[in-house]
Amino acid sequence: MKNLVVILCVALLSGACSKSSTTKTASGGKAAKPEKGWISLFDGKSFDGWKVGKNADSFKIEDGAIAVNGPVGHLFYMGPVKDHNFKNFQFKAKVMTLPGSNSGMYFHTQYQEESWPKKGFEVQVNNSHTDWRRTASLYAIQDVKETYVKDNEWYTEEIMVQGKKVTIKINDKVVNEYTEPEGVERPKDMSERKIGSGTFALQAHDPKSKVYYKDIMVKVLPD
Hints:
13 strands
């Protein structure tokens, strides 16, 4: 009887240890639960929901990320979320730039077959390119001269639009805030750089620039 009790105790302890080990392995895995309210726009495997016109070869998928490298082109989100028409939102992506690279993330834009998008705004992605406008610049509207992140390192770049206010964060730190004045007038070549609604786009700037994007997400905010 004494031996039976010992055997049962050992079995119970073994089972508890096995359960503890399994729980630790599961919680320590790579797959994380999506944050509440955030919707993924890129599955890490395909361009489903995205569309590019001229110079489509400037966009490839490498190790679960969108690799942007080649002649000028723009990859537009054209998927089902909000029928790809966003007004108030939070948008974020993990980004990594290679030395000397330039790119950008557009919002409130619309699909365009070629050239630089006329509609909407570009949020700059550039940590060491010759263009002085650095990462987090609201390009040619309210620019940032400081460099907040390094090449060859992943960082998070986030854009939030609420009404007429645009907030841009780098690694959760606010580095640029802009509020569009009522009745604002832009130069003729920037006439469509105004708060409205539209989709998102990623930019291929030039063949010498290479930038990676992954974990591309949006949270829709009330209008």
